Amino acid sequence: MAESSEGVSRRNRGPAAAAENRRALIDAAREIFSEQGLAAPFSAIARRAGVGQGSLYRHFPTKIELAVAVFEDNIDDLEHVARAADATLDDLFDSVVAQAKVSAAFVDAVAAARDVPAVQRIGARMISLIGALVDRGRATGALADDIGRDDVMLVVAMLARTVADAPAGEREAVARRARSVFSLGLMPRG
Amino acid sequence: MAESSEGVSRRNRGPAAAAENRRALIDAAREIFSEQGLAAPFSAIARRAGVGQGSLYRHFPTKIELAVAVFEDNIDDLEHVARAADATLDDLFDSVVAQAKVSAAFVDAVAAARDVPAVQRIGARMISLIGALVDRGRATGALADDIGRDDVMLVVAMLARTVADAPAGEREAVARRARSVFSLGLMPRG
Amino acid sequence: MAESSEGVSRRNRGPAAAAENRRALIDAAREIFSEQGLAAPFSAIARRAGVGQGSLYRHFPTKIELAVAVFEDNIDDLEHVARAADATLDDLFDSVVAQAKVSAAFVDAVAAARDVPAVQRIGARMISLIGALVDRGRATGALADDIGRDDVMLVVAMLARTVADAPAGEREAVARRARSVFSLGLMPRG
Amino acid sequence: MAESSEGVSRRNRGPAAAAENRRALIDAAREIFSEQGLAAPFSAIARRAGVGQGSLYRHFPTKIELAVAVFEDNIDDLEHVARAADATLDDLFDSVVAQAKVSAAFVDAVAAARDVPAVQRIGARMISLIGALVDRGRATGALADDIGRDDVMLVVAMLARTVADAPAGEREAVARRARSVFSLGLMPRG
DNA sequence: GATGAATGAGTCTTCATTCAT
DNA sequence: AATGAATGAAGACTCATTCAT
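The joint structure predicted for all components is written out below.
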């Protein structure tokens, strides 16, 4: 992210820059998606990355692929979170809320390209990490027995969208309210 | 809707056609919004309505105003639903799900123009009808005491978005799953 | 002008309203031309006059004809000014500056339609009243002998344009500066 | 100008063509502004230059910037004229009259964007070159002592406008008449 | 004659995508 | 493989003009 300060036009450094450019593009895309959503112009991302438009297309022929690359990073984080011995779904929700805009952009991307292999791969990772948390939640009695991975997946998507769509000033309040509704629904009743 | 078969360019039928055109535009917009969302090109709506672009702008200078007009119809329906003596939140949810795409478009519109009076007016109607159902729900013990109008409003928004974004074939399943999660959250716990 | 307050939509009063509408249109046009110049949309004038667009076209098929009608009023004033026994060119300039925007709009119209009879008629009236002032100026020794009507006509046009084009806050200063340059040129030297 | 024959759609010649396109756009703009004034459609300029609309916008995001580029060339000429050891204001007026249409377009542009830095820069150059001629004029006794740069600037603007607005066939006569009025005003009176 | 809606062409502007270097 | 300019197709919006009532 340090590299991605906008407007710093790079020289043509040839093939050597390939890996570096890729990183810069992903970082720039994450920023742009956070600010403007998935519908942001492609050119803005290239500009922010300080990379030619052509290079953007070479690395990521479609916006979906770029979104996948961005979210691949994010999901690394999520997996990291989920791997902690005492991690709960709440921790996952915390992360999702913190990255709401990017998450929402990803939800958009998924909606637009459910059939792209890379998208499915990411979906699988997501389901899998959710699965682990669900299992643990059930084990500790923090989660109702009839709540499955797919339910949580849906909740994550709704949470991301809702928070992302709220005006900046109300994000926190909306997140709290939504999570409250969800939690009560997810908690075992008794 | 009967009149709005696309592509049939109308003659200038004079001012008498004004009201009819307005209706055609609203109907066309509802269709288009349902198919393409709020971001659909204005021109597509005019075309679908069989009306010149200028007429569209005359009737609805901004997309928000058009969205409001569309939703004003929908909210009529919702109010009708809510007025039934034994109406429940579930009935409301049924309607929202049935009109998911349009509802989602409206959520977008509201997000984009919270400060437009017409939007606020609609928002107020929505809150008000939800309020009635909430009160009734509490009275009949179908709703937890700590669930308020704003919570339900949020749920409606999430429900609409989620169902609207799901691929056509999965809408019903998604709706069922989402409502299940929500319901358990909204039901009083014993 | 009292009648022309914008937005007051009139009922269809039929033919009886003809003369009145004509007046309202002229007054509205003067206002609009003053505010936005000759390029102002036709519709703005009809709206300001509280008259249907169709009526505007009926009375004034072209913008030129409307401009002529507007200026015909103004030239009445100018002729009135010029008829005063002790009137000077400076009095004319005062009037032109005071009506700079409208005058400039008229200059535009003339430039665009030198061959329209109505325009020529107005031009003749203008030349004629200037002629009177020139003669008187020469007689009183206030004007150089080699300055003719056409020179003054040109000066009037330039004065109007210049003042009209200046930002509102600088009109007076510009008018003063321009008149100073012109005056020294027009005054006899010796 | 040789390259700018209208309608010959070019291939994408890559970045190498950038400078050439820029030139073509400026030349085309000068022509178009001369023919139709500053209000000419942007698309006409792109077409005349044989360049895509997008390229026009890339090079000149606003019409003002394009006008500035056009006039920057013209002012080069004017500065060249003014630098001649024996140059007079009359030489400047000659140039202004010769480029009347473009000059008038520039006056429009300045009026429309007094606050744009590039415009101010050009204005400063103009004032400065006028200043040199004013100083020289005073020194040689060809100019009245109380005539300053601003007066001459105003005269230039009026001259440009007036000549530009005159029908082609009368330009010369109008220029002569206007300059005569101005000159007598600018000359020292004995 | 008046009315005011309808029409559609014309401009502006933004992007996704391609391509020469 | 990188660059960044070129392209042109949309889409938004505004008006001049026409026309049924």
